[in-house]
Amino acid sequence: MPGIVSVTDLRKVYDGGFEALKGVNLEIRKGEILALLGPNGAGKTTLISAICGITTPTSGVIEVGGHNVQTDFRASRSLIGLVPQEITLEPFEKVLNAVRFSRGLFGKKADEAYLEKVLRQLSLWDKKDARIKELSGGMKRRVLIAKALSHEPRVLFLDEPTAGVDVDLRKEMWAVVRALKADGVTIILTTHYIEEAEAIADRVGVIANGELLLVEDKVKMMEQMGKKQMRIELQQPLDEIPQSMAHYDLVRGEDGSFLIYTYDTQGERTGITSLFADIAKAGLVLKDVQTSQSTLEDIFVDLVKEDA
Question: What is the pTM of this model?
Answer without folding.
Answer: 0.73
